[in-house]
UniProtKB/TrEMBL annotation, chain A:
Keyword Zinc: no
Name used for this protein in its record: Response regulator transcription factor
Domain of life: Bacteria
Residue numbers carrying 4-aspartylphosphate: D55
Molecular function via GO: DNA binding; phosphorelay response regulator activity
Annotated Response regulatory domain residues: 3-116
InterPro entries reported in the protein's UniProt record: CheY-like_superfamily, LytR-like, LytTR_DNA-bd_dom, Sig_transdc_resp-reg_receiver
Domain HTH LytTR-type: 144-248
Annotated keywords: Phosphoprotein
From TrEMBL, chain B:
Organism: Seonamhaeicola algicola
GO molecular function: phosphorelay sensor kinase activity
Organism taxonomic ancestry: Bacteria, Pseudomonadati, Bacteroidota, Flavobacteriia, Flavobacteriales
Coiled coil ranges: none
Protein name per Swiss-Prot or TrEMBL: Tetratricopeptide repeat protein
Transmembrane feature ranges: 445-463
């Protein structure tokens, strides 16, 4: 059983969540519901929940403020939001769970399954740190949390050289010579990293533009990365890629 | 009609200005040199040369000794020169045949020594002899031959001399155009050589003046005479000066200033007499006689003519003799000596013919005609006048006069041109270069300017086109966005209506479930509406969401399946977002919803060929024909929007997408034919 805290400033949203969790009564034990940050922080410190359903906008405060104020970040978090592109992006960077309101039962079911398989709360710590770090720092020094088969890895975005699609996985090449493999598709990474100086040069490759050392006008053209790896550039991406390179 | 004796000056005569001083010094040296050596040979040769204008007989004697010494010393060159000088001396004393012999001897020696220049000089000397014998045709042949030789030797001074001589010969042959051209050619050579203060130039000027006199252009004639006489005076060249006086006298006579004319002739005679120049003396006397004829002093005239006749006969000058005879005839005619006159005219004609002078022949014939008329010998008179007219035509035609004017102009031009060419050759060259350079610069600038202009215009056109294209694309894109956005309200109202139905029928859970599905679809739709194209994967996901929602609304429900060709990479093939949604919606609501049994919707994506994609939806519904009118209107909104989207896409992307609606025996099939478009081109 997961001791669950629901934080949302709107009662009907809390009700909706209560209805959903009631469908998984063997999984969730809702210990309390809170409608403001102060109350939520106090409750969290007092009750040490295992899981928090956290609304992003709580009155005139945010769920992030709540996270900064609680003593111990030793619980799982599922963000809930109606529509906030900004927030969703932040969750994606941090690889945190989120549900969009109104919450679809199928989506909820998926989250439940993932929560059940989650092994440690250590990863959640890292991810929340990543989220808070990204919220503090400007966009150029972003961090990303990546779930691998065994652990969650937090990287500076600037350390990623390029990402390569491997069927349903993605290999991420880092500037320390290491490679990590994520279970997310390249499409996911593209969505996250496109606005952080990355460019999809082909169906299988997403490169960090600041790691491109050279561009060869051969047929087919290649981008030579900082680790001397040649990355093939698709003919349809060539033009946009060069444009992006020149804008650097 | 007056026939004047004019002095024609030969360049050869330039060397006639022998200085007695030089002869004296040479004679002194000769006395001191008794040995028959080369020194004495040189002295003798030089003396022989100088004597020919002073004492030709002494000259011949001296040159004979020179030839003997030269032969002994085997000095061929000096020997030839001595022969040549002997020729000059013989020429002076009027022994032309001996002169010719001497020149031929010299010529043979020069020929064997291959000395072309000296040979040419000899040819010219021979020409002079022929000239003096009034054989102008032969003389001219020699001149032309010599001219060609000098031309080869590139000796322009001697070329000019030859031209002058040729001018004289042509004048005597009454070929005035040729004569004028030769004189002017000669003068233009001198001018180019900047040799306009020399005797040569003076002589040529004088000869031209004589020609102008003949052409009755007296003003021009006087100008050239003045030029010539000034030079003669400066050079103290008496012979030339004498000629000038004579010729000026001629002009004054023509201008009816007889006394002035006689004064000039007498000045000339005086100078000629001092130098024992028989020809000069005879010429002066003839001219005085002619003036006297004009003044009707026939007896005085006849005295003058007789004196002149004797002199001409000794030197064998046929031409001038003919003139004298003609005037004597005229004098007798006017003093009633008709027969004497006739005889003299006849003699004049014969001599003129011998001298080949057309003008003299004409005047003689005309005179003969007059005499015969007076003798009442009309037939003869007629014949003579006829012959005269015929001859006259050959040299005095109007055309010839016109030709003269033309020639003169041509030579004036040539003269100026030559001066320009020679004096300013360098400037011209520089100028030409400068011109070339400027032309080049001009051309370069022009070409450059043209290219730049073309470039700018091209660029402007390009930018305008690009701007227009960009603008059109922008318009089209905006239009597409608007069209995509239009999907939502249409769908929204359909959905809201469905939710309302759930609420009305109190199906709370269904309503909630439906609503969450709907909001999820809304979210997805909003996301993709930003993009023109999405991958098949994404589009199919959207369709599934949509079909899941609709499935809940159809009372009898339906089955759907989505079949994608294995050859299609779902994540790399692009389609316009939600392009099929209105057709799917149509199939559900106007096809299978009307069925009693369960409907089947089949969505299929296939490659038609390598360039096209067929996105189709099949239903087993009632079909379009069975659908009532109201419903058709209702559904047409979504289809209309889709059709609009496709036509905008076709316009902006230059593609050929189209919609086929096929009525099947059971249900409807809608095919949307799209271009096969990859998100990432395969390079391999």
């Amino acid at each position: 059983m997961i001791n669950t805290l629901i934080i949302d400033d709107e009662q009907h949203c809390i009700d909706a969540l209560l209805k959903l969790t009631s469908k998984y009564s063997d999984v969730f034990n809702v210990v309390k519901t809170c409608t403001n940050v102060t109350n939520a922080v106090e409750t969290t410190n007092a009750l040490n929940p295992d899981l928090v359903f956290l609304d992003v906008e709580i009155n005139n405060q945010t769920g992030f403020e709540y996270l900064q104020q609680v003593k111990h970040l030793n619980f799982m978090v599922v963000f809930t939001t109606a529509y906030s592109k900004y927030a969703v992006k932040a969750f994606k960077f941090a690889a945190l769970h989120y549900l969009l309101k109104p919450i679809d039962f199928d989506d909820f079911d998926e989250v439940v399954n993932r929560l059940k398989s989650q092994k440690t709360t250590e990863d959640v710590n890292k991810k929340i740190d990543t989220l808070l770090y990204n919220l503090k720092e400007d966009t150029t020094k972003k961090r990303i949390s990546i779930n691998t088969a065994n652990e969650c890895v937090v990287l500076n975005v600037s350390n990623i050289i390029y990402c390569e699609a491997k069927v349903n996985y993605t290999d991420i090449y880092i500037d320390n010579g290491k490679k990590i493999t994520s279970s997310k598709t390249l499409k996911r990474f593209e969505e996250i990293l496109l606005e952080s100086g990355f460019y999809r040069v082909s169906q299988s490759c997403l490169v960090n533009l600041s790691h491109v050392k050279k561009y060869t006008k051969t047929k087919p053209p290649y981008a030579v990365m900082s680790n001397a790896v040649k990355v093939k550039v698709s003919l349809s991406s060539k033009e946009g890629f060069l444009k992006q390179l020149l804008n650097l | 009609m007056f026939k004047k004796i004019s002095y024609l000056c030969f360049l050869f005569s330039a060397v006639l200005v022998a200085q007695q001083r030089e002869i004296d010094s040479l004679e002194n040296q000769l006395v001191n040199t008794k040995l028959a050596d080369s020194t004495r040979l040189n002295l003798l040769t030089d003396l022989g040369y100088y004597y020919y204008s002073i004492n030709a007989k002494k000259g011949l004697k001296v040159l004979d000794e020179a030839i003997t010494i030269a032969k002994n010393l085997k000095n061929a060159d000096k020997e030839a020169r001595a022969y040549q000088y002997k020729g000059h001396n013989y020429s002076t004393i009027g022994n032309d045949s001996m002169a010719l012999v001497m020149y031929d001897k010299a010529g043979e020696i020069y020929k064997s020594a291959n000395n072309y220049n000296k040979q040419a000089r000899l040819i010219y000397n021979k020409g002079l002899i022929y000239f003096n014998k009034s054989n102008y045709v032969k003389a001219n042949k020699c001149n032309i031959e010599a001219f060609e030789a000098f031309k080869k030797a590139n000796d322009s001074v001697l070329m000019a001399k030859m031209l002058n001589s040729m001018g004289i010969n042509y004048m005597y042959l009454s070929d005035y155009p040729s004569s004028l051209s030769k004189y002017l050619e000669a003068l233009s050579i001198y001018k180019n050589l900047k040799d306009t203060l020399s005797l040569d130039y003076a002589n040529a000027s004088q000869n031209l003046a004589i020609l102008y006199t003949k052409l009755k252009t007296y003003n021009k004639a006087l100008v050239y005479h003045e030029k010539a006489s000034k030079i003669y005076q400066t050079l103290n060249y008496k012979y030339g000066l004498a000629n000038s006086y004579n010729n000026i006298g001629n002009i004054y006579d023509y201008l009816k200033q007889q006394q002035k004319a006689i004064d000039n002739y007498q000045k000339s005679y005086g100078i000629m007499q001092k130098s024992d120049n028989k020809l000069g003396m005879a010429n002066a006397l003839t001219n005085i006689g002619i003036v006297n004829v004009g003044l009707k002093n026939y007896n005085k005239a006849l005295t003058n003519f007789n004196e002149a006749k004797a002199l001409y006969e000794t030197i064998g000058n046929t031409n001038n003799l003919a003139i004298v005879y003609e005037y004597m005839g005229e004098s007798y005619l006017n003093t009633n000596g008709l027969l004497k006159a006739k005889n003299h005219y006849q003699q004049a004609y014969n001599l003129a013919k011998k001298a080949q002078s057309l003008s003299l022949q004409v005047s003689a014939l005309e005179a003969l005609a007059t005499v015969n008329k007076q003798l009442k010998n009309y037939k003869k008179a007629y014949n003579y006048i006829n012959e005269a007219v015929k001859l006259k035509d050959s040299f005095n035609s109007i055309e010839k006069k016109e030709e003269l004017v033309r020639l003169e102009e041509k030579y004036k031009y040539q003269n100026e041109k030559n001066i320009l060419e020679n004096n300013h050759k360098q400037e011209q060259l520089l100028f030409a270069n400068e011109l070339k350079r400027q032309k080049f610069i001009k051309t370069t600038y022009l070409a450059g300017g043209g290219i730049i202009l073309c470039f700018i215009v091209g660029l402007m056109v390009f930018y305008k086109k690009k701007r227009d294209a960009d603008f059109n694309t922008k318009v089209a894109t905006t239009e597409l966005k608007a069209l995509r956005a239009q999907m939502n309200p249409h769908f929204i109202f359909n959905t809201l209506n469905a939710i309302n139905n759930y609420v009305v029928s109190n199906k709370v859970d269904d309503a909630s479930n439906y609503l969450t599905k709907f909001s999820k679809l809304m979210r997805q739709t909003l996301e993709v509406s930003m993009y023109e194209n999405i991958t098949i994967e994404e589009d199919v996901k959207l369709l599934e969401s949509y079909l899941d929602i609709e499935k809940k609304r159809i009372p009898n429900g339906f089955i759907y399946e989505i079949i994608i060709d294995d050859s299609i990479d779902k994540s790399n093939v692009l389609v316009p977002s939600m392009i099929m949604q209105p057709f799917v919606e149509n199939s559900i609501w106007h096809g299978i919803s009307k069925l009693n049994g369960s409907g089947v919707i089949t969505i299929q994506i296939k490659k038609i060929n390598n360039k096209q994609l067929c996105y189709s939806v099949d239903d087993n519904g009632v079909g379009i024909t069975n659908t009532n009118k109201m419903n058709t209107e209702h559904t047409s909104l979504g289809i209309k929007i889709t059709n609009d989207r496709i036509s905008v896409l076709n316009k902006t992307k230059n593609i050929k997408a189209k919609v086929n609606i096929i009525n099947k025996s059971l249900g409807t099939r809608v095919e949307v034919i799209l271009p096969f478009q990859l998100a990432y081109l395969n390079n391999d």
